[in-house]
Amino acid sequence: MRRKSDRTTRDYDVTLDAKYGAPGTAEREKFEAEAEAFYSGRLLRDVRKEAGMTQSQVAEKIGANKSYISRIENGQIIPTASSFFRIVAAMGMQVQITKEVSPWM
Description:
This protein is 57% helix and 0% strand. With 105 residues, the protein is mainly α. The protein has one domain: 434 Repressor (Amino-terminal Domain). The longest helix has 25 residues. The chain is extended and about 45 Å long.
């Protein structure tokens, strides 16, 4: 059954507070960690597919096994920063970190 949209604008922070508790609570921290794992996994999966590579090919290039790449892509684990950079480099991509400069500083 399709749910009818009420097209009401909602404050996402209020929604998260109601469902998972305020920032800093155990439930909210758990939710945010799971969301981060999911997002980073999907990001890496999409980049891998764009590069036309399989999980096995990426794993071989970084000296890991396919199940490690699969667990990352499925949001089960978050790679360390060094692993993240190695995975991205193995797919022929790079990460660029920039510092935001405020005009008021």
